Amino acid sequence: NAATAIITVMELNNMGYKMKKDLINKGLSQTFWPGRLEKRYLKNIPVYLDGAHNKAGANQIKIFFENKKLNRWLILGMLNNKDLEGYLLKVKNIFTGVIAVKIPGEKNSFSSQDINKICKKINLRCICKKNIKDANLYLLNKIVPDEIVISGSLYLIGKVRKLYS
Question: Among residues 13, 30, 39, 71, which one has the fewest Cβ atoms lying within 10 Å of its Cβ?
């Protein structure tokens, strides 16, 4: 990742190899990290795929989106050994609502009803859907958001990324 690349460059500089800062910045800016704020589309709606599944990851999502006040919805699926409430409390203010889904094929995933209970507890609008395709159809036909973020698990991202262009 980027932190490792910076440390490696610092080590190379300490060994006598000189790396130019602008070349380092250029390389880092061109780095592609699948599943980390990866931008795709559903029809013409921007979709951001992010495997964040803890409070630190949620905080990065919050920082990325907090200055953009849009009708933004979160499609969320998460493994049940994660701090769902802590995650949602971090991102709550950047989303209009949540579409809760169970991660396909993951028996240790929160159910959409589990996610809904936590959303209600923290006063965040939540819609339960059976799967990601139903979530997409609901968003396209009923909500028409400005942006969609899909997050909560790299397992989820891996299983849905082919649905978006």
Answer: 30
